[in-house]
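Note to self: keep these together.
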Amino acid sequence: MLTTNDVAKVFDTILSTPGMNEMVKIDLKISRKNVLLLNHVIERGLTLENDATGLLGSLSAEVMTELKKLSEECLQKAGLVELNQKLVILSATGK
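Structure:
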C-alpha cells in the first residue's frame, strides 16, 4: 500500500512529464448548477489545510492561483458571480 508521501511523489512525477504545462482548449457544456458545485469544490479544495492524500500540499502557489482563476472564469461565463457571492455570504452567516 502506498504511503501519503509515495502518492505525492507519483502525483508530482505525473505533473512533471513533458507536455503537462501545455495549454489545451476544452469546449465544455455544463449546467449552471454544476458550475456552482465545481466552484465550491475548487474553493474547498484550495482551503484544505490538512490534505490527507498529500496531493494538494504538493501544488505550487502558481497552480493554486490558476485553479482559482479557472473557477472564477467559469462563474463569470455562466453569469453566476453575483449569485455565488450571495451564497458565500449566506453560508458564512449560517456558521
